[in-house]
Request: fold
Amino acid sequence: MPTPVFLRHSLNYAIDYDWSIFDAFKKATILSFGSDVEAVIYVDAQDQLRDHLHGQGYVASDEYPDDDLTFYYSWNCE
Reply:
């Protein structure tokens, strides 16, 4: 469940610093949760790791045709 601190951090990095959604999400989880939390992100295509919020930078197009592959990344929130 997102906490207010997590939401503030993730939106701050994504909007104020124009970070990708992945980078902002990762930084926010590290700042907001303890080391007992493992955070994960799934993407349909690796190019989507560079996605930004609309108006903040690059946005990857939807994968077409779908190759049925997904990518999973995880890290501990230290």
